[in-house]
Amino acid sequence: MDMKSLQIELLIAKQFKDSVFKNTAVFIITFFIGFLLLYAAFSGWENYTSQNETSEKYQHKSREDWLKNPDKNPHRMAHYGNFAFRKSTSLSVFEFGMEPFFGNAIFLEAHKQNTANFSEAGFSSSMLRFGEISIAMVLQLLLPLLIFFLGFNAVAAERESGTLKLLLSQGISWKQLLTGKVLGIASVIMLLFVPAVIILVLIWLVLQNFTISTDEILKMLLFVGFHFIYLMFFCVIAVLISASSRTSKKALISLIGIWLVFTIILPRTTQAIGAYIYEAPSKIQFNSNIEKDILKQGDSHNPNDPHYKAIKDSLLRVYKVDSVQKLPFNYSGFIMTEGEKISSAIYNEHLKELLKTYEKQNSFSKTISFLNPYIAMKNLSMGLSNTDYDSYIDFQNQAEAYRYKMAQKMNGLQIKYISNKKPATGEKPHTIGKEHWADVDEFHYEPKGIWHVLKSEIISILSILLWIAFLFIMIRIASKKLKAI
Asked: Which tens digits make up the pLDDT trace of 93-140?
């Protein structure tokens, strides 16, 4: 691009920007969206601080309660259980994603896998289901609408007034005109986007006490960079529709229709179709199927169960004794270890199948992102802020791994330290010292790293890049085919 052409484009952009702010309505709308951005930043900060303080407080309380338990049977401790709490990441201040609807705490106990509870939506009014106001929501939903409001008459108005032919007759090419208009709209939007990014970065730094990892820096750069590309996409769409419309009214109707399809109709329709094609079992059915398979395999709490009776007979033969009381280790603890292993394996197998169904639903949605950049941006934004469905499943998996380790640790202590001989009437029940409870580490949730996010959201990234490339190609094609009349 030569300097003269760039100067012309910048001049067109400046002229457009100046003309935009002659309209009082633009000032009012821009101020309103700016206010929403500030409110979103404040509510995001408050939500993040409150949730993480609560999670940290109760995680420590759960740990203290666990360690304060007196001497007791380790199997009772396994049933006493523990809690796993999920802390939010710093970028969740700006993108709430699915976090308000997924729980952030799981009760962990032996022989049973629980799901996350205590979601914000569970304690809120139904209005939450319409979506909370976050910075990401303003950037992804409201700024594109503002862009369309600014750009619907960018070229169409000049065609209606007759100045379009005058501009083109003075040697300005269609490519220069379209590019200049895109830059003009972008310059207005940057008056909101740049301050929002500055506030975003400052809040992000303060929340992390100005100590940030490379992983978090990359996530932040991608979060800002792709939102910029996303907004530029809508600037190009606005100018192309305006340039191809005979009147401003037609351009405005077309752009509002595009906004509704991209941000409301397609996302909801895609979710409904995906859930219909790849139907998932209900929670009751899922738990019932697991229970049936466990009973088929054997009930560890039933001494006459064929599977566990066979294990008992085998042990008696190997150790050449005639009763489990004479075994050199605790028989109940051994059976509980086996039962935990079997029930966990069955649960994980059913969960794996369930997740495959959800993965198909999500893959359908991600594939549709090639038709809708909003879905692609939303998925990528949630992935970078660890507020997507994959992050929720990752938390469930980490909690389950911790639960299994805790239960088997208690079973191991029972095998090692608890006698097979039942205490006589009036005697104290068999217990071990409470110092053993510290052998189980405290739960700490580790959010997904940047490479995991990029791998899972590669379709979203490709979709955004392909869309912006496609539209710039369209500018080149349009600049050769568009007419002044």
From this structure: 888 888 877 778 888 888 777 776 644 433 343 334 345 688 889 999
- Cβ neighbors of 272 (< 8 A, separation 6 or more) are none
Distances, alpha carbon 65 to alpha carbons 61, 80, 83, 103, 330, in Å: 6, 10, 10, 22, 27
The amino acid occupying position 308 is Y
Burial class (CB in 10 A: 0-12, 13-18, 19+), 199: middle
Residues 463, 367: Cα–Cα separation, whole Å:
9
Q: Are 176 and 8 in contact (CB under 8 A)?
A: yes
Structure tokens of 184?
């003009």
The encoded tokens of residue 190 equal: 């940057």
Phi and psi torsions of 162, nearest 5°? 90, -5
Are 93 and 123 within 8 A, CB to CB? no
Helices (H), 369-388: 373-384
- The Cα 403–Cα 398 span in angstroms is 9
- Residue 35: phi, psi to the nearest 5? -65, -40
Q: Pull the structure tokens for residue 251.
A: 């351009």
- d(CA 109, CA 105) in angstroms, rounded, equals 13
CA 271 from centre of chain: 15
Q: What is the DSSP string of 446-459?
A: -PPPHHHHHHHTHH
What are 389-399's pLDDT values in tens digits? 888 888 888 98
Q: How many CA atoms lie within 13 A of 247 on its CB side?
A: 3
Who has greater pLDDT, 223 or 471? 223
User: Token match 């139904």: residue?
Assistant: 126
C-alpha gyration radius of the chain: 30
The CA distance from 277 to 237, in Å, is: 32
- 106, β-bridge pairs: 84
**CA triplet 21, 25, 26: central angle to 5 degrees?**
40
Q: Report the 3 state secondary structure along 127-174.
A: HHHHCCCCHHHHHHHHHHHHHHHHHCCCCHHHHHHCHHHHHHHCCCCH
Contacts of 88 (CB under 8 A, 6+ apart): 48, 51, 52, 55, 99, 104, 386, 387
Residue 293 burial (10 A CB sphere; 0-12, 13-18, 19+): middle
Task: Count the Cβ atoms, other than its own, within 10 Å of residue 472.
Answer: 14
Cα–Cα distance for residue pair 196/281, rounded to 1 Å: 42
Residue 485 structure tokens: 């009349």
Tally DSSP H helices, then E strands, for the chain. Answer: 18, 2
Q: What residues pair up with 109 in beta bridges, in sequence order?
A: 112
| Entry pTM | 0.84
Cβ neighbours, 10 Å, residue 405: 13
